[in-house]
Amino acid sequence: MKTSTILKYILLGIFNALMFYVVPLAITYESWFLLLIIGIITFLINITYITNRLKPLKWITPGFIFLISFVLFPAGYNFYVSFTNWQTGHILTKTQVIERLEDLTYSTDEQKGVEFDLYVMQDSNLDYFFLADFDQDNLLFGKAVTSDQFEDIEYATHEPSFKDSNNNITIPESLYLLSGKEQIANSSTLQDLSILIDKNTRIKLYNISVFGASSGRIFSSQQKYTYDQDSEILYDNRKNVACTLGDRGNFVCGGELVDPGWRINVGTENYHRIINDDRFRGPLSTVTEWTFQFAFLSVVLAFIVGLLLATTLNNEKVRFQKIYRSIYIIPYAIPAFISILVFRGLLNPDFGLVNDWLDPFYQLFNIEPIRWFRTEGSSKAAVLLVNTWLGFPYMFLIVTGALQSIPNELIEASKVDGATPRQSFFKITFPLLLVSISPLLIGAFAYNFNNFTLIFLLTGGGPPIVGADVSVGYTDILISFTYNLAVSGGRGVQFGLAAAVTTIIFFLVLIISAISFRYSKRLERVYGNI
Amino acid sequence: MEIYKLSTWLKEYGWRHLVGLTFVVFSMYPILYVVANSFADFPNLENSKLIPDSFTLKHFQSLYGDPLVPYFKWLFNTYKIASLAGFFNVLLGTFAGYAFARLKFRGRRVGLITLVLIQMFPAFLAFVAIYLLFFQISDIAPFMGLGTHFGLICVYLGGSIGFNSWLIKGFMDTIPESLDEAAKVDGASDSQIFFRIVAPLARPIIVVLFVLTFIGIYSDYILAAVFLKDTNLYTVALGINVVFTDDFSNEWGSIAAASVIAATPIAVLFLFFQKQITGGLTAGSIKG
Amino acid sequence: MSNTKLRFGAILLILSLVLVACGGSTEETVEEPATEEAPEETLAAPATTSPPPEKLLIWAEEKVAVALEPLLGAYESAAGVDVEVVIYEFGAIKDDLSTAGPAGEGPDLFIGPHDMVGEVVTNGLVSPIDLGSIQSDIFDVGISAFSVGGEVYGFPYATEAIAMFYNSDLVDGVPSTWEEVKAACDAAGTELCVAAPGGGGGGDAYHNIPFVQSDGGYIFKFDGGFDPSDVGLDNASALASAEFLDSLVKNGTVASTDYGGSMSAFQEEKSLFWMTGPWARNDAAAVNYGVGLIPTFDGNAATPFVGVRGMFISAFSENKVLAQSFILDFFSTVDVQAAMYAEDPRLPATKSLFAIVENEDPIAAQFAASASNGIPMPNIPEMGSVWGPVGDALLIIRDQNYGTNEDTGVTVDSASDAMKLAAQQVRDAIAGG
Predict the structure, then answer these.
(1) pTM
(2) Which structural domain range is residue B81 located in?
(3) How far apart are CA A163 and CA A169, in angstroms?
């Protein structure tokens, strides 16, 4: 006993020491997310294992930690994003935007596209010098410096002495000419250096060539934008205007927005849009209705098939049951996107095999062949058919596993009481099964509620609902509908909006699940304590 | 006598085989298509013929020997990641399930439902957050950062613990508590009861969950794509998506061949796993 | 008992320690093989002290990586640079970039299609490049595809546009008018005539666009740049073109097929023609095929969308001169471009390589001819609001799904109605964006 306690504290000590070691590291790297998670986990581990009173937590904590890190944290992050204007043009932070803008150089129209050979040299002080070879009469040489030293240096001058009579470059002995390879080795430094031609014009190294001569380009000596931290004003040096802060996370120069902008907190605006925007509201009821039908029927159908197969084979005397079971697992082991496309082909109304098989029926009953994917009904049927195929192996496995937990004595007892096999199935086996797998059914419902891949690959949401305000189809479910809206906004992708929708869907699913759990609690009361 | 037997057999078992075979056809038909495409000279999943005009092994050959398509490494990676993540996933789920089933504490049901509810969050946007988180982890602990199997396995461990613990808890509820009580009288600790009595008896559901988690991870592509950037570290699902697909011209032959090879061992392994699933509650396991 | 308890306690703790390490991250030893240094090498480094070799990180799809692989070694040793190519699924690059770039974890260079140019520029993720003297070697369509606001944002290396495959066992070429196409099909007696993606329940604005914009219709007015406020999907010409498509569908010239359906129709000789792009050459080889231009519309050459692929410089690259040099000094050279073409026969975007390819590969020349009639796919972010509505409208025409919708009460009785509806949806989306 004692040794174990000592060992426990040693391990806990090591763990805490490691965490204390990691925390400063995380701070240096400004890893705030990580820090938060580390904090939560350290706290959890310590309260769990220091005291002896929280016995259940000892068993739950290890798994819970992962749930926090990789499910709860992303969910929280998503929630945070839903309150921002994170969208095309607003994906950076303000600091990053200012850095980006201040990083920009520019060339006037006449400076643009001028290309010339550029030689890089170094003197014994390790200072760099550039020689720009425009032509025989413009061989400009000067000390290359960073922009904050522009005040201190002289302008580059024409130095004809750097060329010999054969037009080859000759370098004075005091200077060392860097090869392409050497330029590249120092390119991190060189990229910030320029020589000044005059007050407004500078030359920069642009292309380091290892196979030929390096080349330079002409830029204005000022950067494109300068930001003044105190007044929060951005100066556009090219157009010579002052830009102020807009209220949507942009600089505004003379009425025009500067890209990129940064992301800001927009409060509940994304949620307001979902509620108030006609483009969302119009098709929403149709889509929501189908989403529920789809998710519910998908679970029910797959469950029925899975249950049928599991109960059929759950009899030791059925021969080849192992082989049956192994075959049923194969659809699950083939990547879904392949199977979905195979089904698209099978169901093709013109060439597909399904219509080929059904042809005798069509003939017999004199009906029009089904125009798969072209009509509302056939598309919905196709979606459900394929999802049943994709989902039944899961249900089959779960039910097979859960059936083992139902004590044979109960069924035997009911037989003795004179129940038929069917009665004992519906009175005993089935309810007990529901009790133990109801959360998985609810989980499967939640999964299908968001089953984007299937819809996207099988029907693409189609066929379109003609006349809706936006592009939306009869088989679109909430997630595919909003995905389309989020990517097809006026100006690119709207992550903030998508996050708000995801949050709403999440809460919707939560509410439904909570209700289902209430129901399953009733079941448990009746059947739980046998 | 013979006739009587036959009709009894039909009544008792014949319909079972009928149902069984029907669904064998239902589940295998699209698969045959995939298999046929892996041998077809001009594969096309939306083909109208099951039997291709001309057969070739070139798609299988394309998976072998090309250093840029290290398919067998992918296969190994896939099985490695899926078994490790599957194992720990089920282990942690079993721990939690045990606590909920056997250690009576307040808020048990609420706690378990909370776990399950958290799990409902759609992974649709989760990967951005996970990506960001692992940038930070990469700086501090590169051995489990982006690009590592270790990190990926950790993420998978968050994947289904809620659902797993519920199912295991439900199963453990049906194991008579009298067994624990007896052990407790003998002086066994919680952990002994868990490892010696409860866990072995819950074997069928544990195996089922392992298989499910294994296959779920095996076919995952989105999270793997977030993590793995080195061709040699890919999983099969990721490799297929990155290497064999293009806007329109997917290499269906190689995709089909790759899927067929990868899926076969799963079906075969499952054949052997079955004893574990259907071993039943009573048969000899109490000795465990 | 204490023994087992101890053992269990230890196992559990070690386990949670290891596992917690995953969740929270701890440190053990950092000398694992494949670790990467934190990106700190930009400061420091005075000359002559030999700094560590510069690194370039490139995100590219598999085929580009394969093509570069044998050539990179020479560049790496000549330049003393360590070039790492990370293989990506082509479409996934943009998504990861917007997360990884700002976090300082992104590449120096990456490849992508030109239609994302507007978005990545608006997001501040890419740096412009002055192509200098090599710009004159690039086809104009490539340069305009990569231009935003007067700056060029990448080096275009490949272009592609759809044209018309024909079954050369059954027909000698693609006639220049749709009437002749129909006649050729009747003569050959195939079940379907032109198999074109974009029908059969699979909306596809990209493949259908020649039916919209060949005769005066347009999505966004092009005048130096695309103008999202001028949508021309329902101008008189666009409506006439749509009605013409309707007649082609009605008389059986254009079949109602999606991409997969059109492919099997062509492969199984059920259709005489297949309207798609150069990526399909391997699949088309199931039959003997040739390639010709898409027939004209009212005497005007068919105008497909031209897609251009290029290499970009990340705005978050810490060594832009090096990144520029990689493109200008290495990637844009004919040798490299030729290797890329050999791996993935999309049309070269450079004139010098195209001159070589044209002679060797008459099929490529046909696709090039088709592309030369085309216009680049609009590269502005507003394009996102076009694909859905236009795909849907053309799908109605292709599948002849006319009628009154029960849910919305809206009647679409003609091809013109469908186009008007699409135009309205596009305008609404842009206004509501």
Answers:
(1) 0.85
(2) 68-281
(3) 5
